[in-house]
Design brief:
With 197 residues, the chain is of the alpha+beta class. Helix content is 25%, strand content 29%. It is globular and about 50 Å long. The protein binds coenzyme A.
Length: 197
């Protein structure tokens, strides 16, 4: 569908190859709902944008993403979430342009490397007013591509059983799902080299 068509032009002001190594994706333009957005790694400079994004969430969104509800995204927590080591973990954002011309976060997809160095746990969140435009799917495929390049074997997640949208999206990408005994949750495993297993 056109609403998900993307192009690979670097956005204005992007400086390809100037800051992060080749295994960290560069900023690129992607169109959602016919509107150009930027997809790029989060940086420490995004902490205030993350707080503003958090303030847009309703309780259900917070609970589904973080596993419990909390009211405030503190500056220190925001800095932790945007200031990850992008060469080991990965935190990608989709940004639009706000009324004042500055960037606004519309979606985040991230993974955190697990101890064995071969798997990573992923999480996604999309602005309520920008759902079903393909943002989470685009972020998932971007995470999968980079995880493969880094030699990971699988991406995993634990998702609440009621979160049918997230589970459907993972399954469409090739994930298996299994109920967690004694919890209202589902374990997701997404192999990155399915033909090798
Ligand atoms: C789950 C979530 C990330 C999906 O984001 P999204 O950008 O709306 O998803 P996409 O547009 O990429 O959806 C891709 C496909 O996944 C499936 N899907 C996504 N959301 C769905 C929903 N609510 N119901 C049913 N299917 C859904 C559909 O097959 C969809 O394709 P379609 O729109 O062509 O039918 C978003 O709803 C969200 O932020 N939820 C709250 C936080 C959360 O649950 N995080 C997950 C923790 S790991």
């Amino acid at each position: 569908m056109n609403r998900r068509a993307s192009d690979a032009r670097p956005p204005e002001g992007a400086t390809p190859g100037s800051s992060l190594s080749s295994d960290v994706p560069e900023a690129r333009l992607v169109s959602f709902g016919g509107v150009p957005h930027r997809l790029r790694p989060l940086t420490l400079a995004d902490a205030d944008r993350l707080i503003a994004f958090f303030q847009s969430h309703n309780e259900e969104t917070v609970r589904l993403r973080y596993g419990y509800f909390f009211r405030e995204m503190t500056p220190s927590r925001a800095r932790q979430l945007v200031g990850v080591d992008q060469h080991k973990d990965l935190a990608l954002g989709i940004f639009s342009t706000g009324a004042d011309g500055t960037e606004v976060i519309d979606a985040i997809g991230r993974y955190c490397l697990m101890e064995d160095g071969k798997a990573a746990e992923m999480a996604f969140i999309v602005r309520e007013s920008k759902r079903r435009l393909g943002m989470a799917q685009t972020l998932l495929h971007a995470l999968m591509d980079i995880a493969r390049k880094r030699g990971l074997n699988e991406l995993v997640a634990q998702v609440q059983r009621e979160n049918r949208g997230m589970i459907a999206l993972f399954q469409q990408a090739g994930a298996s799902s299994r109920s967690v005994l004694g919890a209202d949750a589902v374990d997701i495993r997404l192999p990155l080299h399915p033909s090798a297993t």
